[in-house]
């Protein structure tokens, strides 16, 4: 993507923090801002800024459906593109976060970005910096311990280890994985790594999805627990990296920024507070008004989930140590049209011979009428190269 308007780019702008540490930033702004100030969008991450980052869309199949014409090549990883947003009348300030790579006006500032760039917004907005006008966490976890590293008390920090390996810098860093292995359970150290979500009060445009499970819980929790009176949540139908570069979503985000950074009376406040992209039905709240919980009972005698409690107890066994053993499955067949929404939970009674502890994973899967598991394709076919078929698409889980 070429820059559609005359743009000023200043590289390695030094920003001094209160303790004297300097961060480096690349600032993109329209030339017209010499005479008329513009609002700024500030992505924040340790992935590097223009020309320094390790990650890029070219590392993934078909650039996750994002054509080269949609980006300039000057954007940070998982961040708003400067060519796009400078043309829309904003400045983009790409910052190398403290300790990463080379990092050692009174107007409105917004934060925007995906994944880590969304996660940092929970923490920063909770500190209530006076110039942060609004936030757009476009899918990001919040509580590292509960949502990723030790989810449901099961220690698994493989992804974190990979992530930290990508974040290069000249100094030292904490070893969060080692701290979890050493202490295991919740403590003051981990409490300090959790954002104070109830301190967030500024307007919010958030997204969430079921396609990137790493961010689902944090996106919903951040949205629900914040005390922002003006907040909107959009469930995305496609993978998060694909979603942030789609024209209709850029236009939607523009209306939010225009409302809160430019004080435009554009009717944004009439936008539905919750938008369910997957189903295509917008609602005023989540769960929706006619929502109800239903209880299904597990029956090991026939591997079913039914509305009636089984007349007798039964047992099902599986060999947990064998990779080829997928555990036990129980099936429920819907007899009428049903919409599934909100949170599910399971109560199971389990034991393991010869051990006093066990890790349990419960997964909901949708099957077709023949009992075959259905896969969720979260990049639109029309955004893939011409001639691509469903069989060409690899089954990739990006954590």
Describe the structure.
Helices cover 19% and strands 16% of the residues. It is α/β, with parallel strands linked by helices and 399 residues long. The chain has helices at residues 82-87, 116-126, 144-149, 158-166, 176-183, 188-191, 213-225, 240-243, 247-261, and strands spanning 7-16, 22-30, 40-41, 44-45, 91-96, 109-113, 132-137, 204-208, 231-235, 274-276, 281-283, 297-299, 304-306. The chain folds into 3 domains: 7-141 and 197-283, 3-Layer(aba) Sandwich (Rossmann fold), CATH 3.40.50; 143-194; 292-340 and 344-399, no CATH class.
Question: What labels describe this entry?
Answer:
399 residues, alpha/beta, Rossmann fold, 3 domains, seven-stranded mixed beta sheet, 9 helices, globular, Alpha/Beta hydrolase protein, Xaa-Pro_dipept_C
